[in-house]
């Protein structure tokens, strides 16, 4: 399979409290993060996954690229729901995380979860 470094950018804005997905958007997002981490690391043992949030005080890298599920689970339990998402800034920081990966042979991938309206109208730099 493909050797890949993936950064999961999760939405921790106030919109994630909504209960339109059972039991909440935040819990559905956590389940998806779990699933993606397992799929990525099981497809190739050298794949790495990072985790970051994009709301609250600002985007924050919770876990740098790793293949340790414990670090990801621990970080997801520390996430607090607050603020509005900074989507473009979050994606740019995710690109920086991928730029500094240890294995330069890994392909880069950013997966963004957005569960709130996006009010930004900025253009992203092309990669």
UniProtKB/TrEMBL annotation:
What Gene3D superfamilies would the database entry show?
von Willebrand factor, type A domain
Superkingdom, taxonomy of origin: Eukaryota
Q: Which GO terms describe its biological process?
A: proteasome-mediated ubiquitin-dependent protein catabolic process
Which residues are in the VWFA domain?
Answer: 6-115
Q: Name one GO molecular function term.
A: K48-linked polyubiquitin modification-dependent protein binding
Output a single Gene Ontology CC term carried by this record: nucleus
Matching SUPFAM superfamilies: vWA-like
- Which family does the record assign? Belongs to the proteasome subunit S5A family.
Listed name of the protein: VWFA domain-containing protein
Please report the organism this UniProt entry assigns to the protein: Allomyces macrogynus (strain ATCC 38327) (Allomyces javanicus var. macrogynus)
């Amino acid at each position: 399979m493909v050797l890949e470094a993936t950064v999961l950018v999760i939405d921790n804005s106030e919109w994630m409290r909504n209960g339109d997905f059972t039991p909440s958007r935040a819990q559905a997002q956590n389940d998806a993060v779990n699933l993606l981490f397992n799929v990525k690391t099981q497809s190739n043992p050298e794949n790495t996954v990072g985790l970051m949030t994009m709301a609250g005080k600002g985007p924050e890298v919770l876990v740098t690229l790793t293949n340790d599920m414990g670090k990801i689970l621990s970080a997801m339990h520390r996430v607090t729901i607050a603020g509005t998402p900074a989507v473009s800034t979050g994606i740019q920081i995710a690109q920086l995380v991928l730029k500094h990966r240890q294995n330069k042979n890994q392909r880069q991938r950013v997966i963004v979860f957005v569960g709130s309206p996006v009010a930004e109208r900025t253009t992203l730099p092309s990669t």
